[in-house]
Amino acid sequence: MATSPIGGWNITRGSVGATVWLGAFAGKNNQRLEYSMQFFEYEGQLVARLNRSSGAGAMGGVIGVSRSADVFTELDQAVGSELTRLGILATVTHHP
């Protein structure tokens, strides 16, 4: 995880090399996935938006895209729940 230039977070995991060479066969922990977290104000409320890069998991084919979606949902739930628990966010709308 690294701080982004606009004040959010850039989150990456996995290996680019393993993903390029093995695709979905790189495995759940080695498939390269990239996400970003943005914080901004909207109508007087803090908004935290979790994004995944366009084509996330595409190097892993259909299995990789599906895995990317599953990991994104897990991350969305965990981050939203924790920021709400800490009182940083008042309400959370999770990714469907």
What does this structure look like?
With 96 residues, the protein is an alpha+beta fold. The chain has one domain (2-85). 33% of the residues lie in helices and 26% in strands. It has 2 helices and 4 strands, in the order ββαββα. The protein has helices spanning 16-22, 61-85, and strands spanning 2-3, 9-13, 33-42, 45-52. Strands 1-2-3-4 form a 4-stranded antiparallel β-sheet. Strand 1 and strand 2 form a beta hairpin.
Would you kindly provide a brief summary of this structure?
This protein is an alpha+beta fold.
Mean pLDDT: 80
Helix/strand-derived class?
alpha+beta
Q: Please, how many helices?
A: 2
How much strand content do the residues show?
Answer: 25-35%
Overall helicity: 25-40%
Shape: elongated
| Computed Rg | 15 Å
Number of domains: 1
- Run of helices and strands: EEHEEH
Strands side by side in the biggest sheet:
1-2-3-4
| Biggest sheet layout | 4 strands, antiparallel
Distance between the termini: 24 Å
Low-confidence stretches: none
Number of strands: 4
